[in-house]
Backbone:
C-alpha cells in the first residue's frame, strides 16, 4: 500500500502512534506536507466520516481517529506554514452565551481541523459580539454556534441579527447545531446552515466556504 | 415512614417519579447557563417547595436538584470545592419538602467530560467524583440514587461503582439515553440496550431504563427492547416530545394528556418507575397520576 493510503487507513483505525510514525516517514521521503495532509490525514478522516454517516461506527471511533489526525497534524503543521499552504478555510466556533456544554462543539472543532480547516475555538458561554469580533479579527468566514439548552438557543438569533446589523451577511456565514436545534430553527432565525452532528457540520461548512447556497439560497 | 423502594417494587407497585426541574427553577429566577445546583446553597427553601409541589401532584419519588453535581461538572462553574455541600443540601431540601410523603432519589448526571481513551477524563477521577457526590446525597437523607442521562456505558458503570462504594445497600436506578439508528437503539457512544442491561446489572444497578432523548413513542420502543433482555423493573422518563418551534421559541409538543395516554403501554412492558424529562411539568405528573390510579382501581 502506498504511504499516504497507509496513513489514511491507520488514521481511520484510530492508531495515533502509527499515524505519527508514517507521517514522519512521509516527511523524510520528501512528500510535500500538503499532499500528506490531503492524501493521508484528511482522506483518513473522510473515511471515518463516511462510516459514521452510515452508522457503521460510533462516536468513540471518530474520537480516536481525531486523536490520530492530531498526532499527524502536529508533525506537518510547521511544514505547512513554511510552504505557505493555505488551509481550506477558517471557522470560528463556540457554545453560545449562558451555555457551558462543549462536548459536541469540541467534536466539531476536531472534525473541522481533520478536514483541513483552521479553527478558532472561543470555548463556551460566548457572547454574540465575541463571535463576530473574533471572526473579523481572525479572518474567518464561517461562525459555528452550539447550544444544548432550549433556553440558550435564542442567543444564536442574536448573533445572526448582529451580523445583519453590521452588514456582514454573506461575508460571515453561520452554521448552528446542538441537541435541541433543528433545521427549521436554523431557517427561522436566518442561519446559513444547520448541522445535525460533527460530520454534517464539516459537510455544511465545506459547502458554505465553497460559496454554496445554504438554507438562505446564497451567501 | 415510607416503605423501602425495593419492597414497593417487589409488591408490584408502580411508582410515579417527577418532571423536569430546570424550567421550574428558571421561573424562579435561574438564569440560562447558570448552574441549577447553585440554588442549593442560595435558595434551599425553593427546592423544598419544588419537591412538595411534585408530591402534591402525585409523585411517589422525587429527585434532588443535583443532576450536574459531580465535582467535574461543577468545576465548569467554579463550584467544585462546594460539591459536598451542594449535594448534601440538594438532599436535605428535598427531604424537607416531601416530609415523609415520598422517597427522595439523589440525582446523578454525567460529569460532562469524555473518558479516556476517547477523551481526556481519567476514570479514577470520574469515579471518585461520583463517590463524593453519592456520599453527600446520602448524608443529606436521599433514600436511593438515580444515575441518569448517561450516554457512555463506561461512565454509567463508574457512577454505579462510586454509588455502591458510598453505600453497598442503597437502591441504584440507572437510566441511559438512546438514539434510533438503522441497526437499532444505541447510545451516542455506541452501547446497545442488551449490553447496557447486562453490564449495569453486573455492576450493581437495581433498576434500569432510559430518560431523555426521546418522546413517548420512542421510549415505548426502548422499554420494549429492555424488557426483551431483562425481567428487572424498568424506569422510563421521556421528554415531552422533541422540541418544536413556536414563534421562535422551542416548545415541547406532547401535552399531559398525550403523554399520559402512553402510560398503560409502558407499564405493560415492564416499566415500574415512570416520570418525565425535558419539557414535562407538574401537569404531566398529575395526568400520569390519574392514569395510574384508574389502572390500579380497574385492575
Residues:
Amino acid at each position: 500500500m502506498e504511504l499516504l493510503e497507509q496513513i489514511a487507513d491507520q488514521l481511520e483505525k484510530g492508531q495515533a502512534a502509527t499515524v505519527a510514525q508514517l507521517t514522519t516517514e512521509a516527511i523524510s521521503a520528501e512528500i510535500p506536507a500538503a499532499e500528506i495532509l490531503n492524501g493521508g490525514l484528511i482522506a483518513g478522516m473522510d473515511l471515518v466520516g463516511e462510516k459514521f454517516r452510515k452508522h457503521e461506527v460510533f462516536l468513540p471511533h471518530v474520537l480516536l481517529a481525531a486523536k490520530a489526525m492530531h498526532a499527524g497534524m502536529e508533525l506537518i503543521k510547521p511544514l505547512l506554514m513554511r510552504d505557505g499552504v493555505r488551509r481550506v478555510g477558517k471557522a470560528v466556533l463556540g457554545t453560545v452565551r449562558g451555555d457551558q456544554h462543549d462536548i459536541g462543539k469540541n467534536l466539531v472543532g476536531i472534525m473541522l481541523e481533520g478536514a483541513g480547516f483552521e479553527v478558532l475555538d472561543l470555548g463556551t458561554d460566548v457572547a454574540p459580539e465575541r463571535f463576530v469580533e473574533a471572526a473579523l479579527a481572525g479572518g474567518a468566514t464561517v461562525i459555528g454556534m452550539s447550544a444544548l439548552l432550549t433556553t440558550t438557543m435564542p442567543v444564536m438569533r442574536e448573533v445572526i441579527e448582529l451580523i445583519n446589523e453590521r452588514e456582514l451577511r454573506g461575508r460571515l456565514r453561520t452554521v448552528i447545531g446542538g441537541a435541541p436545534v433543528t433545521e427549521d430553527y436554523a431557517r427561522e432565525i436566518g442561519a446559513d446552515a444547520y448541522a445535525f452532528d460533527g460530520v454534517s457540520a464539516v459537510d455544511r461548512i465545506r459547502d458554505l466556504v465553497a460559496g454554496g447556497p445554504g438554507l438562505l439560497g446564497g451567501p | 415512614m415510607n416503605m423501602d423502594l425495593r419492597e414497593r417494587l417487589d409488591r408490584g407497585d408502580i411508582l410515579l417519579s417527577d418532571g423536569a426541574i430546570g424550567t421550574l427553577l428558571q421561573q424562579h429566577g435561574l438564569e440560562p447557563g447558570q448552574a441549577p445546583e447553585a440554588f442549593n446553597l442560595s435558595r434551599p427553601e425553593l427546592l423544598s417547595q419544588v419537591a412538595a409541589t411534585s408530591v402534591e401532584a402525585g409523585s411517589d419519588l422525587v429527585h434532588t436538584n443535583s443532576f450536574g453535581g459531580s465535582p467535574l461538572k461543577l468545576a465548569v462553574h467554579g463550584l467544585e470545592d462546594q460539591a459536598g455541600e451542594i449535594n448534601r443540601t440538594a438532599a436535605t431540601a428535598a427531604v424537607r419538602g416531601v416530609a415523609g410523603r415520598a422517597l427522595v432519589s439523589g440525582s446523578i448526571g454525567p460529569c460532562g467530560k469524555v473518558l479516556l481513551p476517547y477523551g481526556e477524563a481519567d476514570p479514577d477521577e470520574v469515579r471518585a467524583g461520583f463517590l463524593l457526590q453519592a456520599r453527600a446525597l446520602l448524608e443529606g437523607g436521599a433514600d436511593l440514587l438515580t444515575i441518569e442521562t448517561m450516554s457512555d456505558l463506561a461512565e454509567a458503570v463508574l457512577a454505579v461503582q462510586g454509588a455502591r462504594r458510598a453505600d453497598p445497600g442503597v437502591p441504584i436506578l440507572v437510566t441511559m439515553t438512546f438514539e434510533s439508528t438503522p441497526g437499532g437503539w444505541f447510545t451516542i457512544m455506541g452501547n446497545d440496550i442488551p449490553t447496557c442491561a447486562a453490564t449495569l446489572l453486573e455492576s450493581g444497578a437495581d433498576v434500569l431504563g432510559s430518560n431523555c432523548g426521546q418522546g413517548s413513542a420512542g421510549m415505548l420502543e426502548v422499554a420494549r427492547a429492555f424488557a426483551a433482555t431483562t425481567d428487572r423493573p424498568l424506569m422510563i422518563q421521556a421528554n415531552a416530545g422533541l422540541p418544536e418551534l413556536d414563534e421562535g421559541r422551542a416548545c415541547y409538543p406532547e401535552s399531559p394528556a398525550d403523554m399520559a395516554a402512553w402510560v398503560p403501554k409502558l407499564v405493560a412492558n415492564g416499566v415500574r418507575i415512570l416520570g418525565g424529562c425535558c419539557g414535562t411539568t407538574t401537569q404531566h405528573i398529575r395526568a400520569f397520576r390519574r392514569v395510574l390510579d384508574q389502572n390500579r382501581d380497574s385492575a
